[in-house]
Amino acid sequence: MGAPPEFETVSIEIGGADGAEAGIGWLFFDRPDKRNAMNPTLNREMIAALEWLEAADEVRVVVLTGRGEAWSAGMDLQEYFREVDDAPPHVEIRARRDSADWQWRRLIHFPKPTIAMVNGWCFGGAFTPLVCCDLAIAAEDASFGLSEVNWGIPPGGLVSRALTETISARDAQWYVMTGERFDGRQASAMRLVNEAVPGEDLRARTVEVAGRLAGMNTHVLRAAKVGVKQVRQMSWDTAEDYLYAKLDAATGHDPEHGKQQGLTQFLDDKTFRPGLRAYDRSGSAGDERG
Ligand code: ACO
Ligand code: V55
């Protein structure tokens, strides 16, 4: 696939081929001097970066994190608000489209597993990409806030929509209306993130989780994640039909025949217990290549 492309406000690093980080594509908000605030350039570059990561065979899981002290300080108040307010309408339309395009649509539908590794500040607009990653692990002392009301706007974009996908209505109302901050431990208690760990353990814990996903059947993981997201908006009747269709499609098209391997290894060979770990992929016919 070649070296990752280079950007002004975003960067990509690929984990070494053999070590604990094999298969991990690190995607950084990379404007540490501006606390990784999302300006129109960053939003455009994130679209391109996600397209590259989607196509890179060596990348089996993506971790979205921030350089420096911040995960992301939200939308750039100078470049996304003030400058766009003064520009012709088409500039605002484009900026808003690019913003939603990666923060919500591309991330939520990303074909490989995604993990938000929240290393520090997370404000306002940053809640959208946070929620749209499949999993999230935060530093205990990361600091979160819906700070929109503090500077005179209600949350816009998809921020409130993303928030209510994860935390309770009571918590959403509290934090959207007060603008108060909360830390990683509280974010975990509210289920905004899966776990909070001490800052010094954040990278190791993320590598452990990402590495486990990278070692699994990506074809099956993709079907599992799409299914669990889609059924939230379905009736039980529709969901039953859809999930069986998904199951049959996923197993029928699985290039490494995971279901057959799992059944054989449990029922015939008696070499593993599916409740306790994944089947042995080492004898797989071939890895997934699309
Ligand atoms: N937009 C534009 N610039 C920003 C943003 C932002 N959201 N956040 C930080 N910066 C810039 C600062 O203007 C400053 O730039 P300068 O060095 O050119 O003056 C630089 O980043 C460093 O910021 P400081 O405030 O000096 O850093 P500090 O570490 O003291 O504070 C903090 C960090 C708490 C994140 C603070 O910068 C802050 O409150 N940022 C705004 C957070 C916010 O409310 N974001 C918008 C949410 S609303 C939305 O996203 C829709
Ligand atoms: C916000 C985010 C936006 C936007 C307006 O609340 C406000 C933050 C991500 O886009 O267009």
Elements, N to C (H/E):
EEHEEHHEEHEEHHEHEHHHH
Q: What fraction, in percent, of the residue positions are helical?
A: 40-55%
Total helix count? 11
Distance between the termini: 14 Å
Q: What is the CA-based Rg, rounded?
A: 20 Å
Q: Please identify which CATH superfamily of the largest domain we are dealing with.
A: 2-enoyl-CoA Hydratase, Chain A, domain 1
CATH topology of the largest domain: 2-enoyl-CoA Hydratase, Chain A, domain 1
Runs with pLDDT <50, length 5+? none
Instruction: Identify the bound ligands.
Output: acetyl coenzyme *A, 4-hydroxy-3-methoxybenzaldehyde
Classified by CATH, the class of the largest domain is: Alpha Beta
Mean pLDDT: 95
Question: Total domains, how many?
Answer: 2
β-strand number = 10
Strand content: 5-15%
Name the overall outline.
globular
* Widest sheet, order of strands: 1-2-3-5-7-10
Q: What does the model show?
A:
It is a single chain. It is built from 11 helices and 10 strands. It folds into 2 domains: 10-214, 2-enoyl-CoA Hydratase, Chain A, domain 1 (Alpha-Beta Complex); 218-287, no CATH class. By secondary structure, it is an alpha/beta fold. It has helices spanning 40-55, 77-85, 89-108, 127-132, 159-166, 169-178, 184-189, 202-214, 218-230, 236-253, 258-268; strands at 10-14, 24-29, 61-66, 70-72, 114-118, 121-123, 135-139, 143-145, 181-183, 195-197. It starts with 9 loop residues before the first strand and ends in a 22-residue tail after the last helix. A 6-stranded mixed sheet has the order 1-2-3-5-7-10. Bound molecules: acetyl coenzyme *A and 4-hydroxy-3-methoxybenzaldehyde (V55). The site of acetyl coenzyme *A has 18 residues, from helix 2 and strand 6.
